[in-house]
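Take a careful look at the sequence and tokenised backbone pasted below. I need to know what the token row says about the fold.
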Amino acid sequence: MGIDIKHKHVKVGRRTAPKSEDPYLLLLVKLYRFLARRTDSNFNKVILRRLFMSKTNRPPVSISRLAYLTRNQGLSPKAKAALDPTAPSKTVVVVGTITDDNRLLEVPKLSVAALRFTATARERIVAAGGEALTLDQLALRAPTGSNTLLLRGPKNAREAVKHFGMGPHKNKKPYVRSKGRKFEKARGRRKSRGFKV
């Protein structure tokens, strides 16, 4: 006969509520908690979990990335021709910020739902005939996440991540006190910095 394992101090390995006290975020959490409980859709559970995340785990997505990812990537010309042009386009959902990209000259018509938009990103999406929705508007339109495309930005694109995991042969970026000629640049040029040629 086995023994009962004491689970008294076992911690949940993820957030179960947002750390932020933003009242608008807390209202969204309340809404998506309800939807996650009352619908069978996995979509609402994912949205709820992402609402709990820290800001570094909710990286921004640019409109150029949205344009690239919604352009029927990877389809053959025959498959693209077979797509029904009258079918409603999918709503792109991002639990994070949508940012502008001035390298993108022409913004396609997009339907985007996100936590927040930068002012210029919102302007350009609306000017192109698209729509910029909030997540509560999305809940009214697609309570089970039907006809949506859930995207997120790159978590490891931050400058800080380049320094993580330092060690020999790891090719990581060192934390440098100063970038002058006597400091990191001086290796191989003076005795006190490794060696001198």
Summary: The two ends are 72 Å apart (CA to CA). The longest strand covers residues 91-99. The chain has a mean pLDDT of 92. The domain at 23-69+88-154 is CATH 3.100.10.10 (Ribosomal Protein L15; Chain: K; domain 2).
